[in-house]
Design brief:
Length: 190
Amino acid sequence: MEANNGILVHMETDSETNPSVSIFYPQVIGGVVKRHRGVGKESCKAQLIVVKSKYGGYVVTIFDEAHTHPLTTPRRRHLLKSHRRISGVDQLVAQQLISANVSTHQQYDILAMQAEGIENVGFTQQDMYNSNRDRRMKIKCHDGEMLFDHFMNEQEKNPGFIFKPECILHYQQFRECVWDSESRYEFDLR
């Protein structure tokens, strides 16, 4: 049986015995078909080969600078992965802006304004979203421990401070954790 688009389909056979079925089956039946994308790599012949010397240094053995594609323009250089880094200063500014409840989009706009353009920031907005996500995940794993340590220190300072944590272990969360002397006193007055 031949379909309208010229693809031969044998419904009785399976993909293990007939390779043509396994190639065309997803396209005909409506399975998952990968989206066609443009060519991501160029067949560029430029290369730099560096070999470690037996004397402890490095030696350039082959250097061919003939590119078969246009190089990135200076206006788009900031988009290359190798040129994108969030500096420690930018991370510190972002942390302070997070403390002031400034959204990630607005943080990037502020940094772009300070750098006089997004091409001078040194990273993309998605890099900033990823950095903020990683920072939140790092804090999320340790915030309960920090709270526990803080309350243990408070209990050592003030014997009236009662700290009895009740945890939900498989969620690693505190359900109830504070009952200090002032709260107990106010509760007794009622």
